[in-house]
């Protein structure tokens, strides 16, 4: 039976002020925070993910932060399972779950449910695809995808390696293109909870300035040293989901292959800035797609969000 207590979703692009808004609300109301961020799940990845500091986490506890190593994988299905369990636990305490983050696939999976006509991952098939990439190159794998699923080939780029692997995996298991299976899915809604959706959407120019300032701070406080420490501690590769996070991907490439590719640090920083801006652009696109199917209220500053949610929830 659905709880009478709401579930508050606060979505927004990177550097929009979501964490600041969540912490201010935490001080005002009866909330517990659940992180909706595919990078914050990783231990030891602190600076590049703009993870709340240990002191901030003590004052403002976040669920689903630091739960796996950077060598591991955390799927949308695992997120939904973990989050629904946490929501039920928080509601049982008489508190309100406050879901905050920018991983829109996680929000979509929670709001609409997971695809019920797609097969589960198959480790052996994935390994065979990765072996193909090692031997023939990712361009070859991408051309194979375009052959069996032209529509997916139009949607993906050769750099979208995990999406390519998944699309080929689904085709190898089912004999049907993933785009065809996705088109057959019916839009569902998670009826277990009373979701209230809020988007934090700053002006684009202001957001770009925030992104640039955040990256400058990252470099100043030792982001490159953090990535060097990760390389020493873990057996990392660029294909791992953790290392495809913006900033980490560029820093890892620079540290491992900079001399060979004649990449200097300034060039690497510019690539990180461009990648982060592209991430924000994709997040805006995801949000527009979700807003077409679900009711949203939009705030343009964290201060506006605090004022609006205080009046409504507290």
UniProtKB/TrEMBL annotation:
GO terms for biological process: tRNA modification. ATP binds at residues 12-19. It catalyses: adenosine(37) in tRNA + dimethylallyl diphosphate = N(6)-dimethylallyladenosine(37) in tRNA + diphosphate. InterPro entries: Dimethylallyltransferase, IPT, P-loop_NTPase. The record marks 103, 126 as: Interaction with substrate tRNA. Substrate binds at residues 14-19. It comes from the Bacteria. Residues 37-40, 162-166 are annotated as: Interaction with substrate tRNA. Its cofactor is Mg(2+). Its EC number is 2.5.1.75. GO terms for molecular function: ATP binding; tRNA dimethylallyltransferase activity. Keywords: ATP-binding, Magnesium, Nucleotide-binding, Transferase, tRNA processing. Monomer. Catalyzes the transfer of a dimethylallyl group onto the adenine at position 37 in tRNAs that read codons beginning with uridine, leading to the formation of N6-(dimethylallyl)adenosine (i(6)A). HAMAP family: IPP_trans (MF_00185). Belongs to the IPP transferase family. This is tRNA dimethylallyltransferase.
